Amino acid sequence: MPDPIVIALDGPAASGKGTLAQKIAAHYGFAYLDTGSLYRGVAHLLLQAGEDPRDERLAEAAARRFSLEAVEGADIRTREIGAAASLVAAQPGVRKALLDFQREFARRPPKGAPGAVLDGRDIGTVVCPDATVKFFVVASPQIRARRRFLELKAARPDLTQAEVLADLEERDARDAARANAPMAMAADAELLDTTHLTIEAAFAAARRVIDGVFRRCED
Ligand code: DC
């Protein structure tokens, strides 16, 4: 069996990496893992139990009992869970507990898929440093706040775009400054700035890079 192809997409919140990752996975027939959902899931378990996401012992225990099934159907995309996920994600015990699951997904993608697409903050640097193709997806803070605001506003009509921007900036700063597996661009990653790109244009740019790497691998 050849090694599965792994495509890594890292970058800050609401940069477009999740949408891109899903489109890439659907196009190439690869399995998709949103690794942020693991940290959000752990945060959800803690908040649901009335536990403090800053408590390292409790957070690590929640990460150890975490499974995707345990949070199935829960709305983990809320503003509160996003903030708690970033706190939880800064803790080494939590990251260690979730690392094997992510690596196993990449090594043996579900349903025999020939490849896996993972998006997150440390996929190209820590989780899958040997990924076949790596992207670091960015966009200006204003555009990212706009996109996230439009996503959240139906459920939260009281929310302002300025509040969303403040949340994103606080979260990005924490995700990039933490000592353990901070958000960072791998030296061999392709930088993709989606500020002025439609989803289709960003997807076309990503496909050009991926197809180029595949062609080089075949030669
Ligand atoms: O991508 P997201 O907004 O769903 O991620 C939620 C939080 O999880 C984010 O603030 C940082 C953290 N995270 C991480 O530290 N490492 C990852 N690979 C993915 C997410």
Structure in words:
The protein is an alpha/beta fold and 219 residues long. The chain folds into two domains: 1-30 and 114-219, Rossmann fold (3-Layer(aba) Sandwich), CATH 3.40.50; 37-108, no CATH class. Helices cover 53% and strands 12% of the residues. The chain contains nine helices and five strands; from the N terminus they run E-H-E-H-H-H-H-E-H-E-H-H-E-H. The chain has helices at 17-28, 36-48, 56-65, 79-89, 92-107, 123-127, 141-152, 161-177, 199-218; strands at 5-10, 31-34, 115-120, 133-138, 190-193. The protein has a five-stranded parallel β-sheet with strand order 2-3-1-4-5, with helices on both faces. Helix 4 runs parallel beside helix 8. The mean pLDDT is 95.
**Number of self-contained structural domains:** 2
Low-confidence segments, given as residue ranges, are: none
Strand content: 5-15%
Strand order of the largest sheet: 2-3-1-4-5
Approximate shape: globular
Q: Separation of termini?
A: 19 Å
How many helical stretches? 9
N-to-C series of helices and strands: EHEHHHHEHEHHEH
Bound molecules: 2'-deoxycytidine-5'-monophosphate
CATH classification, class level of the largest domain: Alpha Beta
Major pleated sheet: 5 strands, parallel
How much is the radius of gyration in Å?
Answer: 17 Å
The CATH architecture of the largest domain would be 3-Layer(aba) Sandwich
Beta strands, count:
5
Structural class: alpha/beta
CATH topology call of the largest domain: Rossmann fold
CATH-wise, what's the superfamily of the largest domain?
Answer: P-loop containing nucleotide triphosphate hydrolases
**Which percent bin holds the helix content?**
40-55%
Mean pLDDT: 95
